[in-house]
Amino acid sequence: MERRELIQWLVATAGLQAVQAYTPGDLLALGRDVHRRTAPAQPAVTHVQRTVAIAAERIVPGATDANVGAFIDTMLADWYTDEERERFLHGLQELDARAQARAQRGFSDCPPADQDAVLTALDTELTALRAAAGDEQANQHWFAMLKFLTIYGWCTSEPGMRALQLYPLPWRYDGCAPV
Question: What SS3 state is found at 15?
Answer without folding.
Answer: coil
